[in-house]
Design brief:
The chain has 263 residues and is mostly helical. The protein contains ten helices and no strands. The protein has one domain. The longest helix is centred in the last third of the chain and has 29 residues.
Length: 263
């Protein structure tokens, strides 16, 4: 992987990780387009830059974790379904579903769902004063819906925001809960993957990994702040249109060029 490829992948990760457009899907598509020749290192690189993006959210919302234990408990309950199902099914999902065709279809379907979510949530008021006031039952519901995002192209952010609105949050609260839930979810997933890949990381790789993590941190920090403001003003519809157009374009490209069923 060149530094230019690393820069592009890290920017994509930072921009898309917390937006409802699927960062995994975008990185699979980008890797296919750039024809990265070392997929094993590319996978390790993506794990490391995800950790960089998570740290950006932790930095932004650090004060939330000092208001009491309640937020920890609600996030833990919401994380449990993904943690359990992910441990059992992630290898199978990664083996059979991580390819450009699944990503393209998931982007299109998810875009249509976002258009419906935009209409549904437009004037919806929250039933909670603060996000940590959510009930344990509704926290579990969000966690279960998050499990759908294991399919690449669905988007963890889109799934959890949908689950948040469905469970009584308004748009902004749903987005913020999604950001916070990303911290345990992504730390667990990325940490597990990094542990498996530790023997494949060489000292010569450290510089490019740190470079990617730093870029992802900076871009994610800016993207999260911009997303909340954009969401309050414009809603979800533009993300829905974007997903549909991107999914259709890449599906046509994949079919016309005969891309293999591997990322």
């Amino acid at each position: 992987m060149t530094y230019f490829q690393a820069l592009i992948i890290a920017i994509i990760e930072g921009l898309t990780e917390f937006l409802p457009v699927s960062s995994t899907g975008h990185m699979i598509l980008a890797s296919s387009l750039m024809n990265i020749h070392n997929p094993q290192f590319a996978e390790t690189f993506e794990i490391v830059i995800q950790l960089g993006a998570i740290l950006a959210v932790l930095f932004i919302y650090i004060k939330r974790f000092f208001v009491g234990i309640n937020i920890y408990l609600k996030l833990f309950v919401a994380f449990l379904p993904t943690g359990i199902i992910g441990l059992l099914a992630y290898k199978t999902i990664k083996l059979y579903l991580f390819n450009p065709y699944v990503v393209s279809v998931s982007l299109i379907v998810g875009g249509i769902v976002l258009l419906f979510l935009d209409k549904w949530s437009e004037k919806k008021k929250s039933i909670y004063k603060e996000i940590e006031d959510i009930s344990y039952i509704n926290a579990i519901k969000i966690g279960l819906i998050q499990c759908v995002s294991m399919v690449p192209g669905v988007s963890r952010s889109a799934a959890t925001i949908f689950g948040g609105v469905f469970s009584g949050f308004n748009r902004q609260q749903a987005a913020e809960f999604s950001f916070l839930l990303a911290i345990p979810t992504m730390f667990a997933a990325s940490g597990y993957d990094l542990l498996k890949e530790k023997d494949n990381i060489h000292s010569s790789d450290i510089t490019i990994l740190l470079f990617g993590a730093m870029i992802a941190f900076i871009v994610a920090f800016l993207a999260v702040k911009a997303f909340v403001a954009f969401l309050n003003k414009y809603g979800f519809k533009h993300f829905g249109y974007y997903r549909i157009v991107l999914g259709v374009l890449f599906l046509v490209y994949a079919l016309s060029t005969g891309l293999q069923l591997t990322a």
